[in-house]
Amino acid sequence: MTQTKLTENIHCVGVVDWNIRDFHGYATRRGTTYNAYLILDEKTALIDTVKHTFSNELLRNICEITDPGKIDYIIVNHVEMDHSSSLPVIIKYAKNATIIASQRGKDAIIEHYGADFCIETVKTGDELKLGKRTLRFVEAPMLHWPDSMFTYVVEDKILMPNDAFGQHLATSQRFDDEVDEHVLMEEAAIYYANILMPFAPLITRKIQEIVQMGIPIAIIAPSHGIIWRSDPSKIIKAYLDWSAGVSKNKVVIVFDTMWGSTDKMARAIAEGATSEGVDVKLLKLRASDPTEAMTEILDAKAVVVGSPTLNNGMFPTLGSFLTYATGLKPKGKLWGFFGSYGWGGGALKSMIETVRKAGFEVHEPSVEVKYVPEREDLKKCFELGQQIAVKIKA
Ligand code: FEO
Known about the structure:
Layout: E1 4-7, E2 10-12, E3 15-17, E4 22-23, E5 26-27, E6 32-34, E7 37-39, E8 44-47, H1 55-63, E9 71-75, H2 81-84, H3 87-93, E10 98-101, H4 103-113, E11 119-121, E12 127-129, E13 134-139, E14 149-153, E15 158-160, H5 181-196, H6 200-213, E16 219-220, H7 232-244, E17 248-255, H8 261-275, E18 279-284, H9 290-298, E19 300-310, E20 313-314, H10 316-328, E21 334-341, H11 347-357, E22 361-362, E23 367-370, H12 375-393
Parallel strand pairs: 8-9, 9-10, 10-11, 15-16, 17-18, 17-19, 19-21, 21-22, 21-23
Antiparallel strand pairs: 1-2, 2-7, 3-6, 4-5, 7-8, 12-13, 13-14, 14-15, 19-20
Helix pairs in contact: 5-7, 5-9, 6-7, 8-12
The protein binds MU-OXO-diiron.
MU-OXO-diiron (FEO) binds next to helix 2.
């Protein structure tokens, strides 16, 4: 990462991970960054570190600006290892640094790296004077771990919210006005759908809390991807919409197939939904990954899932997808189902049980076909697509 300033004496010292394509299961087709920030004042503060494989690069970036031995504070906004696992290396050089974290952050640091650190805890509203600048802390539990907190640089109006408002996007640019806006918003949506979606109510409340605090925000500097400086309200509004479950007349069909029967059914359902004028996306697992499917589901009103029966249950890719999807708790979607089988069914029952257990709304009837769909079966699939489309338009 080339050395970039956020403002005078606030430097980006993080790193770009160009080639990561799997971030604990999330398909990061455009790589990512681990952002860290260095603030020079009467006291020097490092905000977050980076993934341990890049510790030396972080150290080099700091050394280009100052002697790491002069770091007084390391602010740990979040202990997940993509942000904290360089701590053991950095602390060897920043020998006099005090680590600042939330109470749960302190506990997590000790649980990850042992108890040999000097750690002070902070809570919402606490401030740390660096000299001309002041850091104010806002606890943000579950955004994205219990320990998470935001750091706000009062005088510069910079919010450093760690994971929140991030994107897995590796670029040589650092700011929103330097990159393609569509790519940026697409990656922000992918990130929200695959990481933050389960915490939607908390996100809405946290944004409302910050608004009520009346803190002006000129820049949002997250821990992944691009920094929002041209119009930070754009990503805040997007988060409010996503968290509220704002969606459109769109049906996402996710399926897999063994010998083409569920593929034919999926296409007939797509035709039925399309005939009612709604937007349709058709995703075959093994051609599309669950990361992409969840991103499409983010602004859809209905999801239709299809599987062949294998060994009396659903096809393994559907098992994996539904585990992932139900865990992410997409809000307010209508779920429909279809499937095929040879001699004994099982996939449909198993899929419906899985989503019912997660509390999702299930459309009835489903369509199930033995071996290969005939004309009459495909008509039922077409009608299923129509029924779901009509329901979401109502
Ligand atoms: Fe980027 Fe929750 O770590």
